[in-house]
Design goal:
mainly beta; about 600 residues; 35 strands; 6 helices; five-stranded mixed β-sheet; about 10% helix
Length: about 600
């Protein structure tokens, strides 16, 4: 009880304590513009149409390119850790299996996209977050809350979308980075961006390798290597029409206790966008995503490959201050490998619509989507959000939404285990939030409840263990995020309280913390930048019975950058400064998957700063 009260007092004091700083006036017009873009960034994942965070009527967080480069993280889970509403569990450091829990929902209920293309394993149901190199991306958007009415299956907890650089019109800008550090880690990356005469391009490649660290005591170091790259090309015609293509691929090998695995993560897509009239734009996207793994263990090799092909057509119509979005989507999931599934493909067809209505000071956002899947049938999801501008700085919002999680191929068709009669997990969510937006800062407070029915869990009927729709969950939570740009300091803070409860047992859902804090502080000092991150979370349970307790933890990460010559810079990061040993998961023998401990990394970069 004391911990919970202290946590809630922390929420209030952070919100009130930040307010005087948020009104500080900027020193120059250009600084004001940059600051406004950082504190109230444009978001596209929440509504399919560009909206600032303060106008999106959603709980959103944006991690921009500057923050990504400052943190210089190894994989995308390091970037997401303890962000508002986000929890992470992993089987150790450096490319080991990781789960992202958004608002307490399962990793299979958090949708991940790269430039609008969904990427995940259709057999496991969740993305391989640990294999994505943050250096390939310039922005991360986190939208919390159900988005089934926009994206269909699996957007129960929300959406995490990663954006690659588009390139800017102008002279070519090359860059190259070399680095090395603890655990025999080494990295080399290079990129080239530019554009002319309406054509923009961006290409990048990166290789990271490490001998790794122990993930279970006494089992030796477990290595990891990752080679990633992407290419993006687009051209805008004088008529306003645009065409483009994207290709991104990550491949490598990761070692774990008992074996190792070769992996591939890949997305590719082409699009065309046409201004049919001054007020009507139409966009067609064709894409393919691949999740491939080949595991090598003592009992043999296994291969699980997923390929998802999608065609999506979106139309945006502007009528005065209002926008209407309508479209259709068809997709096919295919699985191949060493396992003979009863079914190895499934098709999904969907139509969707959204209204973004502005009756200042009131705003309304409504969405509806119909999905027809040949594996689990039909589903209709919807959303409604209402907002009111209380004054020039504060917006109150309330929303309701439904979503569903599709059963995976393993749950439906795995030989000797799958249940083809499974229904999707279905959810209903309500949220009340308020946001304060100022010249030099912001704060956002949200309270929500999500009820999930027909949760898929293992059960034994007639002596046979199989997945069934047997469980229910209720997740309640509170999130507070705030940020300020004052006195050459860039400050961000997030406090999250989550109560993810299994309604059948009243236990906490496994591997979820209920309280977390993240604080980022960075400062410019001439040619130097100095910063750090504090992350703290309370305990969690490894099992559904809440008997295997994993202790909470707190870590401090430090970083420094130095522009020592024109176009030359160096960066040093020191993770887990106090060498705190902690675990967020255990193996089936009850052994902790431990973090790698203190780790330092030094890199040198040549290129535009």
């Amino acid at each position: 009880m004391t911990t919970s009260l202290s946590f809630r007092w922390g929420l209030a004091s952070l919100c009130l304590g930040a307010s005087p700083l948020l009104h500080a006036a900027p020193n120059a017009a250009d600084t004001e513009t940059d600051t406004e873009q950082q504190l109230d960034p444009m978001v596209v994942s929440a509504t399919l149409a560009p909206r600032t965070a303060s106008r999106s009527l959603s709980s959103v967080s944006v991690i921009d390119e500057e923050a990504l480069r400052r943190q210089d993280a190894v994989d995308i889970t390091d970037v997401l850790k303890a962000q508002p509403g986000v929890d992470i569990s992993s089987n150790g450091r450096y490319g080991k299996a990781s789960s992202v829990y958004l608002r307490g929902t399962g990793s299979e209920s958090t949708l991940m996209m790269i430039d609008g293309i969904r990427l995940r394993s259709a057999t496991l149901g969740s993305p391989a977050w640990q294999f994505l190199d943050p250096r390939l991306f310039e922005r991360v958007e986190i939208v919390r809350g159900p988005l089934g009415s926009l994206y269909g299956a699996d957007a129960v907890g929300g959406v995490v979308q990663l954006f690659t650089p588009e390139g800017e019109l102008g002279d070519p800008e090359p860059s190259i980075t070399l680095g090395g550090g603890s655990h025999d880690s080494r990295r080399v990356s290079a990129s080239l961006t530019g554009g002319a005469d309406g054509t923009r391009y961006a290409v990048s490649a990166s290789h990271f390798g490490t001998e790794g660290a122990e993930i279970i005591d006494g089992e030796g170091d477990k290595g990891y290597d990752n080679t990633s790259g992407f290419a993006r090309l687009s051209h805008r015609f004088d008529s306003g029409a645009e065409v483009g293509l994207l290709a991104l691929r990550a491949r490598g090998n990761t070692e774990y206790v008992g074996g190792d695995s070769d992996y591939v993560q890949q997305v590719a897509g082409v699009y065309g966008e046409l201004p049919v009239t001054d007020d009507w734009r139409s966009r067609l996207t064709l894409s393919e995503a691949r999740d491939e793994s080949e595991s090598h263990e003592s009992f043999g090799d296994s291969v699980f490959d997923t390929r998802t092909r999608t065609a999506r057509w979106e139309n945006t119509l502007t009528v005065g201050p209002h926008e209407w979005v309508a479209g259709a989507e068809v997709s096919r999931d295919e699985v191949t490998g060493t396992t003979d599934y009863v079914e190895d493909s499934r098709d999904n067809a969907a139509v969707f619509g959204q209204a973004l209505l502005d009756f200042s000071p009131f705003s309304v956002q409504a969405g509806l989507r119909y999905d027809d899947n040949d594996a689990f049938g039909e589903d209709v999801t919807g959303s409604l959000a209402l907002g009111v501008a209380l004054d020039d700085h504060h917006t109150l919002r309330a929303s309701y939404g439904t979503a569903f999680r599709a059963p995976t191929f393993n749950e439906l068709y795995y030989p000797g285990y799958g249940n083809p009669d499974l229904d999707p997990e279905r959810s209903e969510s309500v949220e009340l939030g308020v946001r304060g937006q100022f010249e030099r800062g912001f704060w956002d407070l949200a309270l929500y409840q999500t009820d999930i029915d027909d949760m898929i869990g293992s059960a034994v009927f007639d002596g046979v263990s199989a997945p069934y729709n047997v469980d229910e969950a209720r997740i309640r939570g509170l999130e507070l995020s705030t940020g300020a740009e004052v006195l050459d300091w860039s400050l961000r803070a997030a406090l999250t309280y989550t109560d993810p409860e299994d309604r059948k047992t009243d236990n906490r859902l496994r591997r979820r913390a209920t309280q977390s804090l993240r604080f980022d502080a960075d400062r410019e000092l001439g040619d130097w930048t100095l910063g750090g991150t504090v992350i703290a979370q309370n305990h969690r349970y490894n099992d559904a019975g809440n008997e295997e307790r994993l202790s909470g933890y707190g870590i401090v990460n430090l970083r420094a950058g130095w522009r020592f010559a024109p176009q030359w810079s160096a960066r040093l990061t020191l993770e887990n400064v106090f060498d705190r040993e902690y675990a967020t998961a255990r193996d089936y023998l009850g052994r902790d998957y431990i973090d790698a401990g203190r780790a330092a990394f030094l890199s040198v970069r040549f290129g535009a700063q």
